[in-house]
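Changelog entry: the Glycoside hydrolase family 68 protein record was regenerated in this release. Current contents:
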Amino acid sequence: MLKPRNTGPMLAMALAGSLLASVCMPALAQQTQDARREAARVPPRPGMMPHAGRMFPGSSLSGVPGFALPSVHTQQAYAPDGTFTARWTRADALQIKAHSSTSVPAGQNSLPAQLIMPDIPADFPSINPDVWVWDTWTLIDKHANQYSYNGWEVIFCLTADKNAGYGFDDRHTHARIGYFYRRAGVPASRRPANGGWIYGGLIIPEGAQEQVFAGTTYTITAEWSGSMRLLNTNGNDVSLFYTDMAFNRNAAGEDITPSQAVITQSLGKIHADFNHVWFTGFTTHTALLRPDGVLYQNGAQNPYYNFRDPFTFEDPKHPGTNYMVFEGNTAGQRETPRCTDADLGYRPNDPQAETLQQVLDSGAYYQMAAIGLARATDSSLSKWTFLSPLITANCVNDQTERPQMYIDNGKYYIFTISHRTTFAAGVDGPDGVYGFVGNGIRSDFQPMNYGSGLVLGNPTDLNTPAGTDYDPDPQQNPRAFQSYSHYVMPGGLVESFIDTIETRRGGTLAPTVKVRIGGAASAVDTHYGNGGLGGYGDIPANRVDINILAFIADLASQNAQVGRNVTGQINAFLNSGH
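Regenerated structure tokens:
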């Protein structure tokens, strides 16, 4: 390895200047353009965010005739280690249907335009010809800032081999965490249509994740979603938090025993030279959390339980303490009705309220989603303890996937994603993003937008059955399943993947959109990109990690393998105009 003292101070200064120029200047220019665009906005109108005003008409909690009023939520903060759990109630979720038009032609969008993702064209490009891509996340620090590393933006995706002989809908049991990279600071207008992402390969060495399931019976393993934490924002140590999955299935693909889901950590390092990004490590995998059956449902209680998608962060109000949010289900036997009047959330004497018995008789008690919370008990983030759930959706929904904590202007937002098909009987809503706001990590979270929770849905006609993404109802909006697995990034940018558009299957990155967030309301920014659609996979870093010494060491190690001269490579880079 090339020692730093042998490189010379002038070389390091030149390399640092070049890297900073290539990364920071385009990003600063883009920020200046964004500021000018914001200043030039036209006066507020429905469909865009007013300055210092209400988000859009109809954002009050006064309710809609013929529907029950939403539940009352104070947004009050409680101790993170406390037992208070907020509820996304039926009274809340019914506001989605309350604000859906009953008069649109079949197959149109019946939901408020301010809360709906614009139509994605059916001729979308593919990010890569060899792998399907779906759940995607970024390289983040403890405050969810997104980092480029030594001049490269990096994303992590669930991937599956397109050429392995199985179909797109069978991808989940074959999922592996892959990564893509591209030059940082290049605006979307100067990138290829597919975002310009270069596939780097898999993060975890083949079979390494299986160590977590030693001593158990399984037939196949998979790697499901999580997050990638940059442990030192001036270094290259990273921690992967992900969901390690093991399935025990027969030849027909049926479960012999319930799947095993383990929230897991693996450590590695990120590397980069002038030409590419690569990773080392991820050979040791530490089981962090398994569902306990006390706070979070496990496979013995429900073979269809959910336990996945870890997202870690540090709370500014509790410096030095790290927390994790994740998807779970309320503990208890699946067949046993456990919903209460509090889960329904109706106000006293509301004439539109359902009775608890009516809800239980509908079978809604099978839907018991929860957003879980855990706290790290050591500095290496390798030991965690469960805390009480932050939000439950009992008798409302069965999936609150990929939750994340988004802190802005003193407000704590939880964003999660869910499907139309996972809502409980009597409740309806589109595939998309749902959001809740409070005054701390643990709050009486208020569902955003009319008290409904809907933040960014696919264009959907709630008057028409949904079908499924692989078999949609012919009368349904052809973009009801256009995108999923949305991830809210700094500044309200939202990335997702394309699922199905006009019967064309995706498995590729969707256009980025932007959501304006203010208090308990939000609206799609139709001035972002082209009518609200940004570039495909436009996932920009808002912070930079410049690690000169590691860069020189990585450059030396790569060039030594092929016998190239490091100084010559640096000179070529400096003379190339990057």
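The first strand starts at residue 77 and ends at 78.
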